[in-house]
Amino acid sequence: MVAYHAGLSAIPGGYVGVDVFFVISGFLITDHLGRELAERGGISFGAFYARRARRLLPSALMVIGVTVAVSCVVLPPLQAMVVAKDGLANAFYVGNYRYALQATNYLSAGGPASPLLNYWSLGVEEQFYLVWPALLFVASLVWLHNSKRTRCAPQRKAQPLFSAVFVAMALLAAGSLAFSIWLTRANEPWAFFSLPTRAWELAVGGLLALVAPRLGRLPAGGTALLSWAGIGAIIFSAVTFTSATPFPGTAAIVPVAGAAAVVAGGCARPRLGAAWLLGRRPMQLIGRVSYTWYLWHWPALVLAPYIVGHQLSTWGNVAVCGLALVLAGVTTVLLERPLQRAPWLARPRRSLLLVVGLSGALAATILLSTATLPSLTGSGYAHAIALSRQHLEGVLGGAENTSNPAASAAQNLTNQVKVDVAQSVGIQDVPANLTPNLADAASDEAAPFVDGCFDSFTENSVNACNYGDVSAPPSKTVVLFGDSHALMWFPAFDSLANEYGWHLIAQSKATCPPIDITVYSPDLGGWYTGCNQWRAAVVARIEALHPALVVLGFSREYGIPDDRVVVDGAAWIQGLSSMMTTLRASGAQVVLMGDVPYPQSGLVPDCLSAHLTDATACTMPKQYPYFNPSGVGQEEAAAAAAGAGYIDTQPWFCAGNTCAVIVNNILVYRDNNHITDTYASWLTPVIGADLEVVTEGLFGTPP
């Protein structure tokens, strides 16, 4: 797991380390509880939770506190505030659901990784152990009949009750696995982070502990082979699984089965089994500090680039993990072991009180750390100016076009935007009345991003996604088609749909441009064939609907990470032309929306939070890679050749040689490439006017 996080390319599936950990944890905890049942005839729930708290929480809480404190020093204030919220969620072991919510939201998922993201697995584990002891308590009568107390020792014939409990637990594991497989297809982030879809992995370890006495009777030769086969299954998962592997789902069965085989094989203690390797002293030493190493390594990897001022190489990451190992050793020696051995903590009540005190201290530390952060509210002021459809003569050379009133109105609205952008590019003090404010910027997104009308990487369904007047005829039907950069214009089109009585259909999929070209997805680690399938299905729907208008929108950042395409290259333009021609053949008019400039300094709200008195530090020059003027010309020419319209968006963002991130009192970007819902809504009049021009009054005046 640590090597995987360090970026070693040989183990692209190293994330399966968590699955192995779940199996081992389930086995050890269930075995311990079973021994208590056998010796005492019951479970002391207070003692159990006190042991868990004393073993896990002091180190976990300390690392959270240190991570939040360091984040407040080295991260932009807004990002540090997010880490503080992560810290509070993880202190109460519910961080996994916070991360599930964030990962489900495609726009939020693109933000910086939390330095406390690794705590999700601890949340799953602790939530599981809130209910598992109670289930095991039912097995007390069985364990009372065990004649041997040692792990993997022979046991007398199983009692009927034992069989019933085993079957019940097996059914629980099977139900969890089935739910995991289904949810991985439906909503992979929730399947990855949630307890119901991970419980079966811990339950497998628990079931092994229940049958451990029987496993001890197996032939040594067979168990040796079993344990090595388990090691092989784990290694196979680590080297063949990638980010493209739907997970957990059925794929998780391989590492879980491998871990189970290693544990089961070790119960007979065969001389030549995998225990021969795992029992070596270096492995044991790492095992003793593995928990604290896991706690330290991820925060160190995430925060190190901010501390040194640049991204680290793979070997730099390895060095950071080595430093984390040293911190883990120090934490184990100075904190974990003294607390575990302290006689005064032998009473459960004292251990629980200690943990409550530490939790309170952590909350105070987080609040104190965040109190040192600069304010997220600027001291400037900007007028809230609405775009007006009224004619304005002389603005930036605008003049009334009596022969084409629609063109005149569109030009005047564009001129208004130009004036506001020109006055805004030089803003120094972030407006105190900024809308949305920096803290709320991430959630200022169009409705389809959160109502199920935006397909993620692994979803290929073509959803209905109907808005506006759903009873309107095809002659008043508009389809908004593309990736997230099409959907970010939705607020304007939704307002226009309500104004003109359109039936608006939104068809959008993550990083899937409406262009006849195959994209390589770095997120999936392979060619994005699902995009091709989804795109073809949308085209088929459009051909069946015969809408009046199809509006295309897409990002121009493909190829910059590793999409293996050349934006505005020959294949790109040819694919765009092919798509527009195909859509025109359906009888629809086609309009291509130009794209936005791309901030290159990270998330714009984060940047502004660190430059409240110098917002110009977050503006962009009107040049590549922030902006691609040559590509704009090629796309406009391709649209004209295909009989499609083109809307040039650059006047809405740039003035002279600079592109703004704030216009009037409106925050333009919610992240590092998507505009806010508020800004898209503000642009509604000029978008509507431009549409009226390029479609030659397709929909006429509003009713």
Describe the protein's architecture and organization.
The protein is mostly helical and 703 residues long. It contains 26 helices and 13 strands. It has helices spanning 2-6, 17-40, 45-74, 77-91, 95-104, 106-109, 120-137, 140-144, 160-186, 188-193, 199-215, 220-240, 253-266, 275-278, 281-308, 314-341, 348-371, 405-424, 484-487, 490-500, 529-545, 570-585, 604-610, 629-641, 677-682, 684-694, and strands at residues 466-468, 477-482, 503-508, 520-521, 526-527, 549-553, 589-593, 620-621, 645-647, 654-655, 658-659, 662-663, 666-667. The protein has a 6-stranded mixed sheet, with helices on both faces. Strands 8-11-10 form a 3-stranded antiparallel sheet. A two-stranded antiparallel sheet has the order 4-5. The longest helix is centred in the first third of the chain and has 30 residues, at 45-74. It is globular, with a radius of gyration of 30 Å. The termini are far apart.
Offer a concise description of the structure.
This protein is mostly helical and about 700 residues long. Helices cover about 55% and strands about 5% of the residues.
Describe the structure using short key phrases.
single chain, 703 residues, mainly alpha, six-stranded mixed beta sheet, three-stranded antiparallel beta sheet, 26 helices, 13 strands
